[in-house]
C-alpha cells in the first residue's frame, strides 16, 4: 500500500522555498492593480486599460496596446504582464478540436493544460500545481510527485492563453469564446486552496477585472481533502465540485487514492453532500474504470447505494494508461454493465469522452515524456 503523502493546505509545500514567479496583474484584483500602477507613477486608470487588453481582448503584445502612450507601454506591460508560461510543446488531434500545451515556468517546472472544442462550447483543463503530492498510483502526475504550487496568475494565464487560441478561430466547428474551465490538470487544486479560489474569482469576475466566465461553468476537482471541501462550501461560489472517488470501498480506495487513509469514503461523501446542500450544485463523482481493479459489478452496486437519492452525477472515465503502467482500461462490455447498474440504482451516469490519447492526453504524460527526453531516457 502506498504511504500517505504530506497534504499541504498552506500556500507552498512545507520545507520548500520555491522562487516566486514575477508578480502579474492576474495575481491582483482591480484595486490592487490600480495601486501598483500608481506606485509606478502612472494614473490609476492605466490598470483598467491593461486589464482590458489582457482579459477583454486577450492581447499580450505591448505594441498592440495603442491606447497606452508609447513611452510607458513597455514599462507598464513589463511590470504587470511579465511572461509566466513559455510554450515547450503544443500538440493537436481530433482534427484540431483537442490541443494540449506543455509549459515551462520561470523556474523550469513543467505544467500542462488542454483545450477541447465542442459544437456548443470550448473547455480548457488547467493545472494548479507543478506535479502532485497525492500519489495516486494510476496517475502519471501523482507518480511524478509535487514540485510546487502555482501562483494565481500562473493558473489564470493558462486559461487566458487558450482563450486566445479559441478566439483566433483555430478550433474549427466550435464557438470562438472560451466558456468552461475545469481544474483537472496537474495537481490537487484544494491543496493549493487560496490561490485556486483566487483564480476562480479572477476567471469569473466581469472584464476587465477578470475573464467573465460563469461560475457554473467552472469545475474544481479534489481527491477528497475534507477540511478544504467544507471550506469551499462556505465561499459563496457556484462552481461544480468534482470528487475523484475511483472506489466505493475503503479497502480499495486506500490503495488507489492514498488520502483515503486519512479521510474515509463516508467522511468524504459527507463533505460532498454538505457542499451540494449549501450550494445547490450537483456533485460530479469521477470514477476511473480500471480493468479488474475497481470495475466489478458488486462495486457498481455499492456505488449506486452510496449515491442513490443524492445530488450527484457519476462521470466514468475510461483509463488512459501511462507507458509502462500495470493499470489498463476496463473492457467496453464491463464499462457498459457498470453504467447499467448505476442507472438502475437511479444514479445519473455518463462516460467521459475520450480525447487526446495520441498526444499523451492523460494528465502528466506530456510532462513526463519531456522530462524523460531531457534526462536522456
UniProtKB/TrEMBL annotation:
Catalytic activity as recorded in UniProt: adenosine(2503) in 23S rRNA + 2 reduced [2Fe-2S]-[ferredoxin] + 2 S-adenosyl-L-methionine = 2-methyladenosine(2503) in 23S rRNA + 5'-deoxyadenosine + L-methionine + 2 oxidized [2Fe-2S]-[ferredoxin] + S-adenosyl-L-homocysteine; adenosine(37) in tRNA + 2 reduced [2Fe-2S]-[ferredoxin] + 2 S-adenosyl-L-methionine = 2-methyladenosine(37) in tRNA + 5'-deoxyadenosine + L-methionine + 2 oxidized [2Fe-2S]-[ferredoxin] + S-adenosyl-L-homocysteine
SUPFAM superfamilies in the cross-refs: Radical SAM enzymes (SSF102114)
Name the gene that codes for it.
rlmN
Q: What is its EC number?
A: 2.1.1.192
Q: Which UniProt keywords apply?
A: 4Fe-4S, Cytoplasm, Disulfide bond, Iron, Iron-sulfur, Metal-binding, Methyltransferase, rRNA processing, S-adenosyl-L-methionine, Transferase, tRNA processing
- Which Gene Ontology BP annotations are present? rRNA base methylation; tRNA methylation
**Under the GO molecular function aspect, what terms does this record hold?**
4 iron, 4 sulfur cluster binding; metal ion binding; rRNA (adenine(2503)-C2-)-methyltransferase activity; rRNA binding; tRNA (adenine(37)-C2)-methyltransferase activity; tRNA binding
PANTHER family linked to this entry: 23S RRNA METHYLTRANSFERASE, RADICAL SAM CORE DOMAIN-CONTAINING PROTEIN
Q: What does the function comment of this entry state?
A: Specifically methylates position 2 of adenine 2503 in 23S rRNA and position 2 of adenine 37 in tRNAs.
Protein's UniProt name: Probable dual-specificity RNA methyltransferase RlmN
Residues of the active site: 112 (proton acceptor), 363 (s-methylcysteine intermediate)
